[in-house]
């Protein structure tokens, strides 16, 4: 039984990718004004970033914010959550799988800024993620989602947005 448990955890370790995420934030906590809705805006340069990356990030960020009860408005909400993908490298999945230890590493750097509808900056989140190894090379989509989820958590903890009360 003990060998089965150990082999299970080892297989999970080798099958999944080994990733890291570092983020810094300067979001204002508990602002004086209440904001109830948001819209998401892509501020990334299209020459650097694959549309697939921006689609995954935006979809996951919106999904996580809606999970917290925040309302999205496509034509502009009380706050605009803009994201700028500064660096993106898919790396080499085969090298991550066969060699590991950072060879073939994938990188993602995103700056997520929160502004009110008048353009006043309420703060930003700088996130740097890396996918370094894994038996199947890991999935770049997983670090994109992890980065978006991290941004949503930081926005939630800052209490910039207020979820509407449901009767």
UniProtKB/TrEMBL annotation:
Source organism superkingdom: Bacteria
InterPro entries listed in its UniProt record: DUF4410
Protein name, per record: Uncharacterized protein DUF4410
């Amino acid at each position: 039984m003990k060998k089965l448990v150990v082999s299970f955890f080892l297989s999970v370790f080798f099958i999944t990718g080994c990733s890291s995420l570092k983020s810094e934030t300067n979001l204002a906590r508990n602002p004086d004004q209440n904001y109830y809705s948001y819209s998401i805006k892509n501020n990334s340069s299209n020459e650097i970033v694959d549309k697939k990356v921006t689609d995954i990030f935006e979809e996951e960020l919106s999904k996580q914010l809606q999970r917290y009860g925040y309302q999205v408005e496509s034509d502009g909400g009380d706050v605009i959550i803009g994201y700028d993908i500064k660096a993106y490298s898919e790396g080499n999945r085969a090298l991550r799988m066969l060699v590991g230890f950072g060879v073939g590493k994938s990188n993602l750097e995103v700056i997520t800024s929160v502004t009110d509808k008048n353009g006043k900056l309420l703060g930003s989140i700088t996130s740097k993620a890396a996918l370094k190894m894994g038996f199947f090379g890991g999935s770049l989509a997983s670090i994109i989602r992890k980065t978006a989820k991290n941004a949503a958590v930081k926005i939630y903890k800052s209490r910039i947005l207020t979820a509407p009360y449901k009767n």
